[in-house]
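protien #1 (seq + structre)
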Amino acid sequence: MKKSYSIDRFIVIAIVIFYIISIVSIKSASMYISSSLGNLVLKQSIWYLIGIIFIINIVHFNNSFFYKWAYVIYGINCLLLLGLLFLAPSINGSKCWYNIFGFSFQPSEFMKISLILVYSRILGEFNRKRKIDLKKEIALLFKIFIILLIPSILTFLEPDTGSVLIYVIITFFVLFVSKLRIRWFVVLFTGILSFLAIFFYFYFYQQDLFINILGNNFFYRMDRLINWQNGSGMQLENSMAAISASGILGFGFNKTPIYFPEAGTDFIFGVFASNFGFLGSSILIIFLTFFNIYLINLTNLKINYSDKTLIIGTIGIIFYQQIQNIAMTIGLLPITGITLPFISYGGSSLLSYLILMAFILNISKKRIP
């Protein structure tokens, strides 16, 4: 008998809610966005429509199809990252985007998907092994290290340090659901702490050598991150002023009281909070938390290791970007150019998350006899 499928309604409703919040916030930010960028509300709607088309097509396949082609997808994305260094226009000193018919395309956003798919395949195969010995564990860690290293170097050269950090976060999250023994995590954290100790020693006490090795550009990026609380940037000051003055109910829709750069992207939460105040911001954060918990609960389904890895990797980057974006908007974390998933304007970022939602819909869909 042919089997049909039902789509997880909660995820579908959540995407609709995200769309409404995104459009309302971008519209309210439009008064401070250059008209040269075009109608961002319309562009965001088009990106959502494209994302929905991707979802409709992806849910007709099982995730096993994408795991099978994971290495090919990963390889294509690595080539796209390499091509940026030679073909992409320089925008604010970075070569992060291809410009195609007026639409920007950022390969690093889709590298997140590639890494999650490759990790899901590798760890799925690893976790299904009945006997796991030291040799197999070392082989796994070496393979994952190489897979992480290649796109990290290419993305760092753009330069886009924020995306490299996201790659690392994906890797950490997926490793925690593997069958690696605890000693490897002790070794891993010891290695990271040692690396950071050496790194910051050279940054603080051997600055000339640090600059000679990594360059002035990276040094000043690090300086901006480390000394962010001492800065007096207009972005952060105006964002915090708008949020703190918004009160319980905010200034109202389309009444953002003060200008701050990147209002439709990095600082979209500042726009939303100033419009809808403490109450609106609290409702949004509660909804985001409930959405995250729902995704986490999907790991309790009777699913294979590859699907479980995919869910954990997706949760990891969504949760990290939510925390980073909201915290940097209110001055709790440094400004890193991280967007708020599903809400900030940005075609590549939005499309990457909608594609990941399609994979999760494949996991959560229920068979009907």
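ok now protien #2
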Amino acid sequence: MALFSQHHLNPSVKKREVFGWAMYDFANSGYTTVVLTAVFSAYFAGVVTQKAAWGAFAWTAALSVSYAIVMLTMPSLGALADLRASKKRFLAVTTLACVVTTAGLSLAGPGDVALAIVLIILSNTFFSYGESLTAAFLPELARRDSLGTVSGWGWSFGYFGGMLALGLSLAYVLSAQAKGVPAAQFVPVTMLITAVLYAVAAVFTFTLLRERALPAAAASGESGFAASLRQLKATLAETRRYRDFGWLLAAAVFYQGGVAVAITLAAIYAEQVIGFQPAETMVLIFVLNVAAAIGAFAFGFWQDAIGHKRALAVTLVGWIATCIIAAITTTKGGFWWAAAIAGACMGSSQSAGRAMAGMFAPARQLGEFYGLWTFATRLAAVIGPLTYGAITWATGGNQRIAILSTALLFVVGLVLLLPIDVARGRAAAEAKPGAAD
């Protein structure tokens, strides 16, 4: 098919390898969709905490702890993966850890707040490691002028993984509800479904994806953690050289904060503010994933055609509209409109950011630069949901004010995109010794 043309790929990269890479997006999307968005988030706030007033805040605080861990460790972990050419090996370890801790969430029942918090911190930390490491393969697979297209392939394919995990979970939930089984019994099973699907789909990644990088440590004779920290320090000292990448990170801290609110609090908002029932929420998220998959796929081609910066800006305008509609609507039908726009923007905005990061990353420092990218996105994931939870708590549970305030994150992100010069950022990456042409 022309849509999946070989000319988008680097020489010697075969389509089956890209399929293997995209299968990791397919594998881990079930975690985002079922655990963070549609099922466990609402289950935690409603069942585990037994509808305590602080439930939403506790959920966002737990996620924030995991993101803080990732922020402090992922840049140096990425640098270490570059030095040892071990992205694939590190990815395997973090994947296994995420699968095990996701399955462990099935043990959390009513009142098991501490257990649920520990497991969500661990599983989300390992999920974030995996997301960063797999993203670092993108510039090895795609040509520089096709990063948006290939990123869109993976991100859109990932949403189908999320839909499969959610679809299987929804089928089980509907069957259990028809038999009168309570949420405390059927939600844990959905965690096992998600973990198993994650593990099975990831097998394709580790079978087909190659570790193409050569050990950067060979030149210096150093490959330990201390060496990775020295490499990271050297990169940070050259921030003026990579100023466009720096502006992208700054923008991501804000707009990804808004995206994180949508991912982690959509189900809570739909059920507690709009009045959705759990099964209705799962259908809503399923349809949102369909829109996101289509948006990410089509947007990838459009992004490469009109430019990364302009395309990303368009999605942020869509996100601003989403927040405003969600804040003012009082009906399920009105919220569906907000969800439809969010779906179209969600995959495209995240795919666009991942592609731009690859555009600005030197070829021999992909793990390190994507580690810095992950630092920014996880800082965003702390700022966005935690601010939302704090505003909700401070206003006596008024989530409408909280979602409206989220629009400001996208506005600031849009403003911070303005100084970025894509051509200058790309030139800085390619000027680095060992960069790909």
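The chain has 17 helices and no strands.
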